[in-house]
Structure formats: structure tokens, C-alpha cells
Here is the input.
Amino acid sequence: MGTYAWNRAYRSAYASLFVCLCTRPTRRAKMLWLTVAEYNTAAVRFYESYGFKPTSDRRQGEKGAHQLMVYVLPESRKRVR
Here is the structure.
């Protein structure tokens, strides 16, 4: 699955809301991972600002290398339904 923002949504907080929802504590998932194009430095900085850590794993995309980034999800004490 890929996520992309259309021009009207650029810098409108949609991506921030999406990341905040995805990184909420859960009892089932342990980590969240994604790939981001290395040439898209703004996206790399954005994900790093939310706690994603770059790994040494790289994938080749159509326009260049994509870097794997991971986020370890905090455990929730509440029951998730």
C-alpha cells in the first residue's frame, strides 16, 4: 500500500494525523515499518520527527533507492477491541 498526498493537501496536517493514528499503542502489533524514497528528504525528516528510525535495508524503486524505516509501537495496558 502506498500513501501519497495531492498538491492541495501538502502541509495541511493530513499526513501528521495519519501517522498519529497509526502509531497509537496496541496490544497486537509490535512495530510499524514503511519505505520512503531516499531522494525525498522532506519525507525522511517527517517520519524521523515522529520517531521512525532508518535501517540499513534498501530497496530499488523506479526513480531511486527506498529506505526501510521502523517505528516500535508502545504497548498498551488497555484492551484494544
